Amino acid sequence: MILFLNLLNQAVTIYTYALIIYILMSWVPSIQQSAVGRFLGRICDPYLDIFRKIIPPIGMIDISPIVAIFALRLAMSGVAYLLFAFI
């Protein structure tokens, strides 16, 4: 069970880093057109689109990625708590 939790935590951490890199890449549109940018777009956009539908941009600032990362980390904490509660 601990091994599963460690693997899940590593996967969430890697995905969080991928989200951060994808968000930073949005500042330079030419980087998003590269192979890495398209790959990150395929894995990050479906998750970010959920929050973009709920939270509209404030002027030119899109805060939905911040909420998405926070929700991902909160879900990971909840899963860890539930697993440790039943062990």
TrEMBL record:
This entry carries the following GO cellular component terms, namely: membrane
Q: Which residues cross the membrane?
A: 7-28, 66-86
Q: Does the keyword Nucleus apply?
A: no
Sorted keywords for this record are: Membrane, Transmembrane, Transmembrane helix
InterPro entries of this UniProt entry?
CCB3/YggT
- Family indicated by similarity: Belongs to the YggT family.
State the name under which the record lists this protein. YggT family protein
Q: Which organism is it from?
A: Psychrobacillus lasiicapitis
